[in-house]
Amino acid sequence: MYQYSLALALTDYIPIIFSGVGIWFTAKAIAQHNPSIATLMRWATLFLVLGGFCKASWKLLIATADLNLMWLNNALFIFMAPGFTFIAFAMWAARRQLAGRPLRATAWRCPASATVLFGLLALAAVIMMPGAKVWFFILLLQLTVANILFTWHATRYSLTFSNKLAAALFVLNIIGVFAMSGLARVGDSSEAFQWLAQLTNTATQGSLALAGWLLWKNLTQPATAGSLAGTGN
Question: CA-CA distance, 102 to 216, in Å (whole number)?
């Protein structure tokens, strides 16, 4: 039986906002030299936010109406796994083009194929093992790998422009993500423990928001814009 206080359910929307803001500002930074890749990242961010919004709304319905719509809870990974896969791809593509290496017009097929593959595997798991959560672990694997790849490329991208603080915050974000995974395995459903997990998630996504903003701010400064133009030559 799930139980959440109203305050706990409402604050669950804050990390969603932070993560969306972080990726959005990262996309704005990429847009300084590659608008098309930035547009792809923005669209993928909508999946990220939608998944988080569904999960937070699931908690809110439990807290206010004692209504448990598990499909809202499950939607978190259904949306976030493909969303982060394309976000990681966009980050990789941005680094590649910034380095002057051409990007094939069909490169998008790689994240699309990975998304279809994991989606089919998850669907097969639901059909063959309807009572198990194998589908969840399949999508969790996809999301975890994509998140690690995004962090790697976002960190290297930040260091390209000597933005060490943004790079450190991107790393701090992924550390927080793994910390959240560890907290989830504890299985403590007490209010105090739920608040600990909630505050950890808020700090984790807050570091992502600050990292994206610092990266964008760095790339929109006149001095940096000049060095950016020189990098592309």
Answer: 23
